[in-house]
Amino acid sequence: MDFAGKTVVVIGGTSGINRGIAEAFAASGAKLAVASRSQEKVDDTIAALKAAGAAEVIGAAFDVRDAEAVAAGLQQFHAALGDFDVLVSGAAGNFPALMAEMSVNAFRTVVEIDLMGTVHVLKGAYPYLKRPGGNIINISAPQSYLPYEGQAHVCAAKAGVDQITRTLSMEWGVEGIRVNSVVPGFIEGTEGAKRLAPTPDAGEQLRRDVPLGRWGTPQDVANACLFLASDMASYISGTVLAVDGALYQRGSGQFGQMMGQMLRSMKKG
Ligand code: HXC
Ligand code: NAP
């Protein structure tokens, strides 16, 4: 894949899966902009992306819950790098919690980051997307369509993200902008996976639920993003692409219940 001369913006691109995506675009010669809340993580990522081969890299620290800060950051990226060829929106927060046990503010926090954050990022970037030819990739999760106990907040937020993908593929598709979601399965070594499967037993249960028999890697997800952003995918828009080793086909599996059982037993203890 050759992304030389292309501008790629990755929001939430300073760790885990999203950083893997940014590194893959860097290795393909793109100009990159990354953002997250921590300036330290942004600086560390800028150095890594330069080393990975990016033509140019900038970054900014902001919280996706702050619409004005997001808009200002994106304006700054546009002034430095020009129209956006690719926008990856992947900032998210998660913790396991039963609905009855979590506060309204806890639920709202995840909705504000995952769903409203996506709204802020997409609306902030809209004026700067190349048209025709711009590409949006929203990073979703299996929770969008699979219910897991202890994940009502994430399920609600990510389902909303995917419905935005589908709707904007029509609204913005007429301007030549493609909009897709990528759904990572359980990806090894990531913060999200650590939070949902904190013990070796839980990790093994998860692996057994995956027909391909292994956890995913950040590179698996990055490969899908490179493809979707390339001309090879020029007629693909409005799709929700699972990169999950066929996890979806088995549904929530036993893991969907296990987290609830674990949280209930912690409550009793
Ligand atoms: C219950 C919790 C909680 C927990 C926080 N809260 N953690 N409630 N159980 N474990 C509640 C708090 O008590 C508070 O409510 C409210 O949530 C906000 O908490 P804060 O700590 O003030 O929020 P904030 O500092 O903004 O941090 C947001 C965060 C944090 C989501 C809580 O964990 C974070 O920054 N996460 C980013 C990294 C991350 O989560 N990465 C994984 C992404 S994976 P009260 O009522 O007390 O005020 C993912 C999907 C993965 O998204 C899918 C895997 C398959
Ligand atoms: P991660 O390492 O915690 O990545 C989250 C990124 O978002 C970080 O760069 C974080 O940096 C940033 N971020 C978090 N809250 C933010 C906020 N309020 N404003 C701005 N930036 C914020 O998690 P991950 O596990 O790799 O997950 C990445 C994406 O993949 C998420 O969208 C997640 O839902 C999705 N996903 C993950 C898995 C998995 O197995 N891990 C599975 C399915 C889907 P700061 O802390 O500096 O803000």
UniProtKB/TrEMBL annotation:
Segments crossing the lipid bilayer: none
EC identifiers of the protein: 1.3.1.34
GO biological process: fatty acid catabolic process
SUPFAM superfamilies: NAD(P)-binding Rossmann-fold domains
Alphabetic keyword roster: NADP, Oxidoreductase
Domain of life the protein comes from: Bacteria
One MF term in the entry's GO annotations: 2,4-dienoyl-CoA reductase (NADPH) activity
Signal peptide span: none
Record has Transport as a keyword: no
Keyword presence, NADP: yes
Entry similarity comment: Belongs to the short-chain dehydrogenases/reductases (SDR) family.
Name assigned to this protein: Putative 2,4-dienoyl-CoA reductase
Species whose genome carries this gene: Ruegeria arenilitoris
